[in-house]
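Section 4.2 – Deliverable D4.2 (structural model, holo form)

The reporting period included a commitment to supply a predicted holo structure for the target in complex with 4'-deoxy-4'-aminopyridoxal-5'-phosphate. Inputs used:
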Amino acid sequence: MDPLRHVKPEVRRLRAYTLAAREAPIRINQNENPWDLPEAVKRRVLDKALVRPWARYPDFDPRELTEALARFSGWSAEGTLAGNGSNELIEALLMVTVGPGTRVVIPEPTFTLYALLTEILGGEALRVPLTKELRYDTRALVEARRQSDAAVTIVCSPNNPTGTVLSRHDLERLCRAGDGIVVLDEAYHEFGGETAVPLLDKHPNLVVLRTFSKARALAGLRVGYLLAAPDLVREVNKARLPYNLNFFTQTAAFAVLEEIEALDEMVRRIVEERERLLARLGDMPGVRAWPSKANFILLELLEASPRAVFESLYRRGVLVRDVSAYPMLSRCIRVSVGTPEENEAFLHALGTALGEAGLDLGADTGRA
Ligand code: PMP
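Output (structure tokens):
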């Protein structure tokens, strides 16, 4: 008996996308909004859910929510698809485009799910490194697209985990380099203030992905959406599972749209905090904070080991993301911007951790 022999070899070779289950009083490891939705809003959602029969399916296709998301984004409802988190829509898009041997251009380092899903589907992820300054190498991306006749190119802007942004000009260059689909993952766009939605009209091969998990404080309920030309959306929709958005989530998504001004205010505060954190980290010896247009900062540790700093912060109640296994980031951790109190606690813990981890590193390498 060897049932595993029936699992695709490309899947057997892969490592799962996982996140160690750790708890801490200060969790700045998942780029969430540190402030929750107001309790009154949550109660409104609960009340609506209570009167609705739970034994009945939600909408087969969340039409009303899709229309509301389209109006909110300034794009057509036929060109909008709502998903159970934007992850689901990345998967649906790749399912309808990628088969054995299909090429997908992906810059690196970036969000690891793109390459993972591509490879599960039998496609080939063509990885294009960022420049040494962690910028997008647009010329290399255009070249890779052209040479490989790539079906899809996926760029995240601002990029997770580097905070790198792709300019509008460079995005248009990518869109014009062949008819392959260009996916722009805008999971963090609210913190940078730029969006590619106005370009959708001009580029029928452009797909914009967005989420309510970051700026919109709804990671726990899973809402994402995809914006593209209606023809393309009709095809992606074929891979969307029926009833993908449960009624609770749909109700919460409407509540978020009603609360958008309060959420925009949270975004302003997060951006302010990011700039304050960047300035403070800029004065700290032993670290280099990379500029960021997102709600997180990539921190390069110039002397201490990322793992040791991660553990030392954890012992002080601060959970960050160790990204040192990512290509080019072997000296890095990533920290999400929290509330002002959380950020202060983090800065304080980091000061101590750097000293402690520096000594650990010395011990690891046999130096004093
Ligand atoms: N895209 C990027 C770049 C992300 O960082 C994440 C979450 N870490 C997602 C998409 C997934 O978001 P969602 O919660 O909408 O599935």
